[in-house]
Design goal:
39% of the residues lie in helices and 17% in strands. The protein is of the alpha/beta class. The protein has a single domain, classed as Rossmann fold (3-Layer(aba) Sandwich). Strand 2, helix 4 and strand 3 form a beta-alpha-beta unit. It is globular and about 60 Å long.
């Protein structure tokens, strides 16, 4: 299957910090600011899409509950906590390049009283050798594989780390979620799609593996692909405060992409700024017609 997807970064699997459109931060302050913005987006993603993540963990073809799980490119822990919830006897090793995201994950684990079931490892997954992650029964990689410069190397590393018979779950997004109706905003209908078209072009250069079909690559790395599924997300709960904040956070990241600033006409940028002005009458937080529309693709692959 052919997949296309705009960059929605869950984890930061390696040292390159891709923002929307592949923008790279410059300077420590900007990196810190981007980390905070991204962390908020990841937290909202986990909150809004919790049911969909739970449905994926429930679908995984596991004859018995795994004891040790590795969450690759864990971000702030959307997958980690869904997996801890689904498998109450398991512990999770969360791996990410961002110390800030891992600290946020640890703080959440403490708040939930599951800190003894979580270990965090800061690592660049594009490095030639990985830290020792033990011999997990399940490796989970959600929206992180497409960020890797050498995914074939990463797939082989996962294959070699897994316990015999262990499962590798790859979850990728069909696209950054859409929030607005097609005819919105009324003065610039179709604005959201034009924003995505602008970032897509740049992202394709920075992340050639986004939208890939991971099935053949998993097979080439020695896995047996045991299941594939598409999860369609269409949440029409337009009055949800979390969806409003999720839309605001996502569109702010898009507004910060140089591709959007450089290629969209001034009228589009002005309309986007009105949506992002939380004090203004056109704020996206004031709208009652928001939705969350996207798809996720899942591959479950077994180490023989």
């Amino acid at each position: 299957m052919a997949h296309t997807h705009t960059p929605h970064q869950h984890g930061t699997p390696h040292g390159h910090r891709h923002g929307h459109g592949g923008d790279h931060g410059t300077g420590l302050d900007q990196h810190h600011h981007q980390d905070d913005d991204l962390a908020e987006l990841l937290d909202l993603d986990a909150e809004v899409l919790a049911e969909h993540i739970a449905s994926i963990t429930a679908w995984l073809p596991l004859p018995t509950g795994p004891r040790h799980i590795v969450d690759l490119g864990s971000g702030t822990g959307a997958g980690t906590f869904a997996l801890l919830d689904r498998f109450p006897d398991a512990y999770v090793t969360a791996v990410d390049a961002s110390a800030a995201h891992l600290k946020r994950l640890r703080d959440k684990a403490c708040a939930l009283g599951v800190e003894d079931r979580v270990r965090t490892v800061q690592a660049d997954l594009d490095a030639p050798s990985w830290p020792d992650l033990g011999s997990p029964d399940l490796v989970w990689a959600s929206a992180s594989m497409h960020h890797m410069a050498q995914p074939e190397q990463a797939l082989r590393a996962v294959h070699d780390a897994l316990a015999p018979g262990g499962l590798f779950a790859v979850v990728e997004l069909a696209g950054f979620p859409r929030f607005l109706p097609e005819n919105a905003p009324e003065e610039r209908p179709g604005l959201e799609e034009r924003c995505h078209a602008a970032t897509d072009r740049v992202t394709a250069e920075h992340m050639p593996h986004r939208g890939a079909d991971w099935g053949p690559m998993l097979s080439a790395a020695g896995f047996t692909v045991e299941g594939e599924r598409t999860v369609t997300v269409n949440i029409e709960n337009s009055r949800s405060e979390a969806i409003g904040r999720y839309a605001l956070s996502g569109l702010r990241r898009i507004r910060g992409a140089s591709a959007v600033a450089e290629t969209l006409p001034p009228e589009d940028l002005a309309a986007l700024d009105r949506l992002l002005d939380t004090d203004g009458p056109h704020s996206i937080l004031r709208r009652d017609d928001l939705a969350v529309r996207t798809e996720r693709f899942v591959w479950a692959a077994r180490r023989a």
